[in-house]
Amino acid sequence: MPLTKFPRYPLAHLPTPLEPLERLSNFLGGPRILVKRDDCTGLAMGGNKTRKLEFLIAEARERGASAVVTEGGIQSNHVRQTAAAAAKAGLACHLALDRSVPPLDQGYEATGNLFLDRLLGAEISFCAPGQTRKELSTRIVDDLRDRGERPYFIPTGGSSPIGALGYVGCALEILDQARRQDIAIDRVVLASGSGGTMAGLLVGFALADAATKVTGIDIDHEPERVADEVAEIATGCGALLGVAGIDRDGVEVVAGYAAPGYGRPNPGMIEAVRLVAKLEGIILDPVYSGKAMAGLLDMIRRGVIGADETVVFVHTGGAPALFAYTSVFASASGEPPLA
Ligand SMILES: *Cc1c(COP(=O)(O)O)cnc(C)c1O
Q: Which residues lie below 8 Å from residue 313, measured CB to CB, with a gap of 6+?
């Protein structure tokens, strides 16, 4: 196992299930769709950041850190999972949050992930008007150092070469499950934001010499920036494992499903969240997996993804944020698809 040389702090319930979405596949008339349930990683309501944090928290502990510092939006899933990981590891946790997403719901700053961050005991700071979260998190790190603490900084989304190792592990886990279930996977589809998840999957499949395509769906409304970051993190992560650099041209980040912007709802996302809930009993999220599923549905309907393919949708989690978006679903006009 190529990952055993890296320190790892156990946080995730692994392996997560790889299971068929039979009713969704039938509804669409193909392709064969499976879901990788990384919403079920187990730590404080789960999600994709938990796999990354196993490696990041291990590095923090190895360096003798007394606190972790990270940053994100108000409803960041990464921030919530980091707060939980820090709690479990007995480290203080400091969060720098920005208000870049216009609040759509009264609950936006009361419930969902922010409520859980508070419950998990994190120290929360909000950006002043005009202040970036990078500026705020840098100040928090400096203040902690001045007070004699040993802060360990985790970048947005936990997306560093070390964090991406978690998704190298996920790629190998998917291949192992596919082998046991006697399935040949053509393509993996996922939401891509800060890029570490997709980078790790690309490195993992390259490491295993698998031909599996990785299709990222841009949820940031910045597909070029996302693809640049994926390539950069994948190259750094590959270097840790002796895998040659991942070519930027080979990084497929699909645009068209993020509008009007990060964290802001659109009709495709609302349809996708409703459809998967009603057909499969699976809860997607409004910021990432809902938009990624909207992209998958659209690519299937347009024939970009063929009916003969076998596709794995990586459910990266995020459902806690739904509670900060309830009015979006209540007020969305149009018939629910399966009323
Ligand atoms: C962070 C996140 C993603 C994106 O993962 P990146 O590694 O940042 O690209 C996808 N889905 C959910 C639910 C997330 O919280």
A: 21, 33, 34, 35, 36, 188, 189, 190, 292, 293, 296
